[in-house]
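We both want to read discrete structure tokens more fluently, so let's practise on a single case. Would you supply a protein for us yourself, any chain you care to pick? Would you write everything just below, so we can both look at the same thing?
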Amino acid sequence: MILQHLSQLYPLLRAAVSLQLRRNLGLTAVAFNKAKELDPVQKLFVEKLREYTTKSKSAGGVVDAGPEYQRNVNDELTKLQRLYGGGDLTKFPDFKFVGFASSSSASRLSSVELQRLRNDLFTREKARQQSLTPRIEKIEVKLVGKTHPGTLFVMNKGLSTPYSCARHLSEWHSKNSILALVNGEVWDMHCLLTQSCEIQFLTFKDEDPEEVNKAYWRSCAMLMGQVLESAFKEEFSVELLQSPEVPVLSGAFCYDVVLDSHLDSWNPSKASRTDENLRALTRAVHSLLHQDLPFEPLEVQPKVALEMFQHSKCKQAQVEEKAAHSPQGTVRVYRCGDFVDLSDGPHIPRTGFCSQFEITAAHSLGPGPWGQVRRFQGLSLPRQLQVRHWTDEDRRGTVDNLDSYHNQSIVFLSLQPQIRMP
């Protein structure tokens, strides 16, 4: 790559960056020099272009920007290609990457990079929202229900959560409350309280644990998706599609994914009755359970969610759909450790509430527009409801009937492989 070639590409690069900023940040117009609106990788590339522009203007034409700049040009173009769609820039007229590997593994972000990107955006947005509360205001939260009715908590608006109230009530409530009813509406234990309200705590042992059970199933599916995204070797890729809401009584929770075409013949469910690949995935989930990680909810604007999931066409379609059906026009995301995913929630408070957990099967749902869709399934029991044993037949007996819970409205996505197992 020579600087003369870069100078010819400069207008195209400028247009490409501007286009992507408008798309991902939801802006109607973007000034190219607003580096404060860019993430670290974008800033790095913009600074390189500024450096070249300054030197070329001073010299009145193409210049030798120096060996250090020359060595970094390909690296910066590689990062740009990764950031903006894994090679879409090559579709611009007369635009080619010189000396750049054309393999898909070189042009896409790894699962670790994707998780870091989403995690950083989650942290930044959470901090931004917290900064909008300039001073602490007090609210009154009244406990209703069978236990200690009428207890009044004086809490901090926009800072306190149902979990904060449970801790004030008793250690038992803080360790056993799974969800809260806030003015009769089901809430996460870590969702911020924004006004005075009535509150009631829900546990696994309530007379009607339906909402708690659904939250548990939903959280287990998210944990399975978290492991699936990062379990594969770097030469493969996994695209998370969605976690379908299947009835708890169906016997398993699910997550739909698309694996690289090189893994089309991989069928862990039929490999053996005790498939080692599924066991490896299960062990990875158990490491998350032992860390007792919180499920953190965050309500964000669609443009923030689109930026988080800019590398997933499927997730972007879900963002737009969820925002369209939301009364506030917002989208909810959850973070568990470094993993961020779309979900309407609610979820259980922490991974430590899960005990017996096993990923039991992976079934093919057939080809989609971009690849073969797999449905991974699992079983789990909460810590408070442990049993001594479950047999191989127990855990596999109900998993073969869930293929019918296939949401035909899924927007499928293309992928490439990545498993630290096969």
